[in-house]
Amino acid sequence: MNSTLVILPTYNEAGNIVRIIGKIHEVAPDFSILVVDDNSGDGTAEAVQELMARDKRVNMMQRPGKLGLGTAYLAGFKWALQRDFEFIFEMDADFSHNPAHIPGFMEAAKDADLVLGSRYIPGGGVTNWSFIRRVISRGGSLYSRTILRMPYHDLTGGFKVFRRRVLEGIGLEKVFSEGYSFQIELTYRAWKKGFRIVETPIIFEERQEGASKMSRKIFLEAVIRVWQLRFKV
Ligand SMILES: Nc1nc2c(ncn2[C@@H]2O[C@H](COP(=O)(O)OP(=O)(O)OP(=O)(O)O)[C@@H](O)[C@H]2O)c(=O)[nH]1
Ligand SMILES: [Mg+2]
What we know:
alpha/beta, binds guanosine-5'-triphosphate, two-stranded parallel sheet, seven-stranded mixed β-sheet, 8 helices, globular, binds magnesium ion, Spore Coat Polysaccharide Biosynthesis Protein SpsA, Chain A
């Protein structure tokens, strides 16, 4: 069993979704794709449907409304575990996560159970971010790293690959976070269970197409959730 699934959650990514899938298949022709679409109003699902008709590697789960990124991933993980996948990627559909990094993840995954795409190790970085957004992101990772005592540099990123056994072993039904803390929580649960975690450098690119959904609420949730994780998990 050696197959790989890339989960792409979408909410209004009609301008990106077909192109990003094409780019993934350029570097990894044998990867399967699962789009988890939350009833985007902009034709995202229709575009994926059209692609599915001629490309059997592409799959889609459609949910009735915007239910959040965390639950989109949880639904995608469940779908993956019901099938024969050994590696499961989380990836944004907005080109912030460059498919060119995929080979680096697969190389790192040879000796790891979870590979984190990291902006804050040598070779990693961000482009086109305002000073304030850099501070929030870096500060968020530093904050969680300190409170949770995990030795990783980028804990809020959403470009990562899990081995199947991690998703089977961490107790997905117990996950309580949404937003940014969702990423922190999955990594923390994996780390607590003793899974091998490594970071691979990524250059995170600001989205080119479509609107940002970053909000104060998501940020504040993360600040509180980190303490809950420390004392409850
Ligand atoms: N299914 C689903 N996907 C979502 C939801 N919210 C965001 N997404 C998708 O998740 C990925 C990451 O969301 P983004 O909106 O890019 O969040 P971000 O990277 O923090 O912010 P920006 O890039 O600045 O917009 C994108 O592919 C979105 O389309 C949601 O509620 N449901
Ligand atoms: Mg984004």
